[in-house]
């Protein structure tokens, strides 16, 4: 059997490429339609694999020759066991909506797509516990539990295509974290195929289970480097009976922090989102027709915006709390806000959210984006955006020829800023100006270089800005324990 | 240097006892008052170590000769490094309030008490993030954050003496889990001394940080077998502005499940506890003067009781929701409840809680208790209590001579039942009648043999009732990776 040995740039050990003989074996595991390959004799045109080899931003590009689409955990196990025995590296792939290249092959790894594992296994309407295959799309699960008056504990812009398995593998944060907490709390169990092919069944649907080490936690946020998540047991909260939102225009960034304290105090348990949008992000969203804009008059002199959402059990109580909040904000001697617009119906509610959620799309329409997803103290959100802009200006990189916009938005309640640098094209010069500059700024605040997007392929070299030596050493020990051959998503998370 | 080699019942490898030469070395690390030892020349009477060698239930008894009380993580590290080099097994000890013998030596291990590490390191009132030494008492931390209008995300009966480090090491659940989720979600960072003496600093105070494997999760619930937690970073929620509670008497156990659904729907986000108390548990609590009892007339014909707590941001809204709930329950054609008593002031509020929280104390006043802390489906709570009672009756063990009461209470929202068997004395006969009987019943429901108490020394042999072979095998691999010499809390969690 002919095998090519590769010594990849990011790979320390030789791996095998997928050969015709491997395809023959995969045919004993999967039906023909679940095997996509450019390897002879299948010989699909490589364009058929484009959607698996490229990310949606057009930033990462793999050269996988073969994509497998198993339907059961046993099939995943059989595939992995073969790969382990034949040194074939694997990239597990969900909805491929990540932002750090975690689900794209670096070279010609085998792609195992979970897209065909898309069934709900069980749902208990009393406890709200949902057990679903990893390839279920987040929006489908939201729709599935809705008639039972439950919601998913996470929500994010990519909900129409991201998979629950990918959400868990990347420990996705998103828009509901402020209210429902992280996946480390709401994921109750996992089924995982380990790098040797073992199916680790920890798919408990118990809210509480203190019987030894909580191994499943290791796979939450490991980005597929320790195994392939094939099913998820997750606690879904009861649906709120009423949701409201309001967009507030603030004259100064410095008002955000006192506003957050006032809002937390007055809205208390019904506060479900507190999102920050700086003026540049707002302008771009409006320019590209994302959501409902305030009037020109209303936004005059506004330095930034805040979107507040409430979710509660009784509409009249929630509205009363929200109206009292707005009155107290407007009637104050030194108002923290210029103006606020309260949504009056479901269409307006969606439209206000579209303004916030549409920033990502507006940014991609405007140009190529360098995206940094960082945790820093709230008080420094503006300082960091401004410092980045000035740094680029000092390098002569600000303007139509290079970087056109530097903007920030994000989740205030989580201390999570999305710093976006929009440019005409991805260039090495801009890249070099941004890194390690941004990471050093984050490290100076003892922040995180990846609040929610993960490390993927993008930030492996920068891990040390957020993790100390002992932590990285222990991560490597864990990786070696689970994946001694290093076949599982190589070059991701750890270099 | 003379060392005794021991081949303990539960220990697979030879360990050393603490010798005079070890004490000499510890004196270079700690001041004299932080070393308690019966070893010559210190030669304290062994009664001085009673509180460290015995648990509060009088069920577990160790023979430690030496207790060390370090004040810094560096001192803990120095102690552990010495022990690792000299094969001295260690039992980390917090408030010693556990129920499964996890913090008591099995033989003469060295006890490292965290009681002197009791300082708050930092608190940020905007984010609510608290960083505290592991030895801080839970109630002290509650008192510390109260003036800032925050509360601790956990609350349990032992709050006056349990340590936050012990809470995290045992993944304590308690009374607020329904509302604030598990410690896997609310613990943001840990400082841990590993079994080789390394200080693993993952004491981040970021709400979100997706930079690689979340190693700290492994120590949450590992009961001190993978390292010694020396500090905790934890998210504290804002204090509710108003809390109310009500006790409801139910004619039939079958009403609990529909009642739970009705209460969840009507109280929604302000529901903070839904506690179940069976008639036997209620009667014992009343007999021993725990909390506020209902009138004899009110409880006539009641098969069980439910305590409902609300916590919200505006008193009048919360009261309106609670009163509407009670009206709808009482006005129904087939009422789910016989009666309900709403607390009218803080004293009554505390007194209703005392009835629930006082069951533990009532049980210890009544006799010796076999305590099982299990996760099973809510619908089977009564079946399991009844089946246990009948099983003991069939063995001739029910009556004044042996088991006097079999009772159940617990956290309905978490599917967590506390099954207590009260006897005149601990006997092998009762023990043999209860185990594996109880574990087999739990396994038949695919439940957990330890919902929140942990495995400790009590349930290592029963782990397989809740964990499959692959899971136990991987737990052992993790244990070996972190603690190859097996010196850290040997014989706990894993046999």
UniProtKB/TrEMBL annotation, chains A, B:
One of its GO terms (molecular function) is D-lactate dehydrogenase (cytochrome) activity. GO terms for cellular component: mitochondrion. Keywords: FAD, Flavoprotein, Oxidoreductase. InterPro entries: FAD-bd_oxidored_4_C, FAD-bd_PCMH, FAD-bd_PCMH-like_sf, FAD-bd_PCMH_sub1, FAD-bd_PCMH_sub2, FAD-linked_Oxase-like_C, FAD-oxidored/transferase_4, Oxid_FAD_bind_N. Residues 60-239 form the FAD-binding PCMH-type domain. Its cofactor is FAD. It comes from the Eukaryota. The keyword Oxidoreductase applies. It catalyses: (R)-lactate + 2 Fe(III)-[cytochrome c] = 2 Fe(II)-[cytochrome c] + pyruvate + 2 H(+). Belongs to the FAD-binding oxidoreductase/transferase type 4 family. This is FAD-binding domain-containing protein. It comes from Mycena albidolilacea.
